Amino acid sequence: MTKLYLVTGFLGAGKTTFLKHLLERIDGQVGLLVNEFGKESIDGITFQGQELELVELNNGSIFCSCLKTRFIQALGELLDRGLSYVFIESSGLADPSDMGKVLGVLEQKGIKDYAYGGNIVIIDGVYFEREVAVMESVTRQIRHSEIALVNKRDLIDEKTYGRVVEKVLAINPEVVVHPVVRGAIDLDVLDRRGRSAEDEPTTNTWESRPKSLVMHVREQEVTEEAVRRFLGKASAHCFRIKGYLTIQGRPHKADCVYGQVELVELAERVSPTDSLVFLSSEGLRAMSPILAAARETFGDGAEFEM
What we know:
Residues 5-175 form the CobW/HypB/UreG nucleotide-binding domain. This is GTP-binding protein. This protein is α/β, with parallel strands linked by helices. The protein folds into 2 domains: 2-191, P-loop containing nucleotide triphosphate hydrolases (Rossmann fold), CATH 3.40.50; 211-304, Hypothetical Protein Yjia, Chain: A,domain 2. The chain has helices at 15-25, 43-47, 65-79, 99-108, 128-134, 136-143, 158-171, 224-234, 287-298; strands at residues 2-9, 30-36, 53-58, 85-89, 114-124, 147-151, 176-179, 211-217, 238-247, 250-257, 260-265, 274-280, 302-304. The strands form 2 sheets. It has a 7-stranded parallel sheet with strand order 3-2-4-1-5-6-7, with helices on both faces. The longest helix has 15 residues, at 65-79.
């Protein structure tokens, strides 16, 4: 049997970091299915070069009808590769409320050699209280999880951590909660799981999906300070921004959530072009202010993909 785990968590919670830690320590052949709402894959690039079977499904949620058929097909194909584990990294806005239905369809199609280990939800300890108040997907991810990892435990005090755990258990009293730092866990945590809620219809639909915008940037001399200033301005119109940029001749990975900009210098270029994906909170209306801010930094070297 192939162990199957779903990994959910809101934008910037630390799903990719968690998986990178896990994949470094786990024994056996591993498959990874990465799902992103944006048109272009950013997280998938992070895993390229590792010894695993990688499948990427972009431009929507795997729980939306727009991708669900491909999602089920991909799980079937991964099972044929004789893997010990398959992990699904969902989009940050995914609503996994009908994961049981997905598993049922797999069984109906004769795909019966998966042992489902549950949904591991990664919770951003710093921003959870803000997120859960306004984002239904955060509540749904917790309600339909078996394991909850409160990430960034080192960045919050005991009182805040206690409030987070209390709110998580109010949503799902049977989930098992663990505090973690930078997504690192002991492997036996995967076997200490609670119970998720009963299936319900997902809120992920074609109509409700956020608009993703892709910007290509021609390589040029820009400072880190200028890039940070641009991303800070653009983030006012986005749930999240991520991608790859060349800064003063050196490749960087860029990530921005809630105006918090992270620029990580890379040892080598991992993306053939400099580009950013904006998950817009305002639809197409965000294009004008984001492009105006980009022109202040990159001149005419920045253009949206049309």
